[in-house]
Amino acid sequence: MKQLLILLFTMLLCDIAVAQNIVITGKVLEETTKEPVPFANIGIEGETIGTVSNERGEYEFHVPIEFKDAIMQVSSIGYSNTSISIPHIKNQDSCMVYVEAKNYVLDAFEVRPKELTAEEIVKIAIDRLPANYISKSYVMDGFYREYFKENGKYVALAEAAVTIYDHEGYQNVYPKTKEGIQLNEIRVTDILNEGDYVLYIDINYALRGNLLRNKNYWKRFIKRNRFSKQSLKIDSLTYAGKDLVYSISFDFESPKSGRYNGHFFIRTSDYAVLRIELNALNLLKGKIVNGAPHKTKSVMNYRELNGKLYLSYINASHEVIYDFKGKRYFLNFFSELQVNKLETKYIYATNVKNRAEEKSIFYLPRYRSYSPEYWKDFNLFHDSPANAKIISDLTEKRPLNDQFRANGKLKTEKKMRAPTALPKSKYAPGASVNTSNTSGD
After folding, report:
1. For tag attachment on the chain, is the N or C end more exposed, with fewer CB atoms within 10 Å?
2. pLDDT tens digits in sequence order for the chain, 441 residues long
3. How many CA atoms lie within 13 A of 149 on its CB side?
4. Rounded CA gap, 434 and 427, in Å?
5. Which residues pair with 232 in a beta bridge?
6. Separation CA 77–CA 265 (nearest Å)
7. Are 97 and 90 a contacting pair, CB within 8 Å?
8. Which contacts qualify for 410-413: CB closer than 8 Å, 24 or more apart?
9. Which runs of E-coded beta strand occur in 41-193?
10. Beta bridge partners of 58
11. Residue 241 backbone class (left: φ over 0; alpha: ψ -120 to 50; beta: rest)
12. CA angle, 86 as apex, 81 and 90 as ends, to 5°?
């Protein structure tokens, strides 16, 4: 009897451990064309729990078991909102969500007052940041990924579950306190690059790209670089669910630092920025800098809860040309952060015990062990056809699981090389570089 009770107790504990999350994976698709819908917000109705579809419309939503009977809501700019009852999802391993495109059409007899200019709309949006966004302490749980390729071949991948503490949010204060970041779980592959350089992307770097939270930094950047061209215009009106949204394009150009263009998507009712898309050509007096990013693309997505918005997703990709000892390397760096949960009550600085160092997580000390149990439900990376080349390139020498296990243990036999300044090359910084092939493919 005692053995039976122990067995039953053990089985119960296993059931509890397994039942922590419901994992729903699939794609967000446009209802008519069946085209993927990138960067759609996916969450539990009325809760701060969610995820975002990637650029291929794919998503992996980890739903806490207490929300097994809740409503999953999907929203994206240009589409009507879609709601699905989680108990009615028949195939949680392949849940296709179809959203209806919603275009704004001006009625022939509709009389509209004089519209604001694009410049006026953006200025109002900036002034209203403290009113539209969370402006108090909060903690976010998220998922961070960074990877890169060298001369067209993927050579490293790192993923981490993170907790981010923001003391000030979107308050209009200066200087702005940096977020506290704690790495909770991590898995890292081998670093297979041939070139002698240091990876520079890190989660702190990614968060600095949040233009809205760090508006004062970017204001100074614009002033310092003396942009000779500053163009803003309203391209169109669209919808985000039931809300009418301005699509405003921007194009800034500086002889000193390059060109920056993209789009703001701003809600007409309260001038809240829902998404920013940015393309940057980073140049120094019109020239590519050896070893520095010269092309950058980024997307910032914001989600709303109880009338306040917060960052739900940010990604960035960078192209780099690096010449060293007579050899040229075409490098592509990628990073993305998905916010899965937000908490605004009972928040203190001690919520985040350790601040992640400002360097790539590839170089952080391996003081934590790799936990296969934690990662067993994270299948999107392996299941997405688009990641087949990443996996193929990284597994030429040994399986990913072997790499994760080895790189998750404390390494005492080999001292990890700390990030340093890029070594000098025969190409002086700012030297003109032949860009006949900068794709890295």
Report:
1. N
2. 444 444 444 444 444 344 468 999 999 999 999 999 999 999 999 898 999 999 999 999 999 999 999 999 999 999 999 999 999 998 999 999 999 999 776 554 444 446 789 999 999 999 999 999 999 889 999 999 999 999 999 999 999 999 999 988 999 888 888 888 888 888 999 999 998 887 767 788 888 889 999 888 777 777 777 777 789 999 999 999 999 999 999 999 988 888 999 999 999 999 999 999 999 998 887 889 898 899 999 999 999 988 999 999 999 999 999 999 899 999 999 999 999 999 988 776 666 666 666 777 777 764 457 888 889 889 899 999 989 999 999 999 999 999 998 888 643 333 433 433 434 433 333 444 555 444 443
3. 18
4. 11
5. 250
6. 8
7. no
8. 410/365, 410/366, 410/367, 411/366
9. 41-44, 50-52, 58-64, 71-75, 82-85, 95-99, 138-150, 153-166, 180-188
10. 27
11. left
12. 110
Contact between residue 77 and residue 274 where contact means Cβ atoms under 8 Å apart: yes
Question: CA-CA distances (angstroms) from residue 412 to 366, 383, 409?
Answer: 10, 34, 9
Residue 17: in which H helix or E strand, if any? helix 2-18
Given a contact cutoff of 8 angstroms between Cβ atoms, the answer to whether 309 and 301 are in contact is: no
The DSSP code for 265 is E
DSSP 8-state code for residue 421: P
Q: Where in the sequence of the chain do the CATH 2.60.40.1120 domains occur? A: 2-99
What is the pTM assigned to this prediction? 0.85
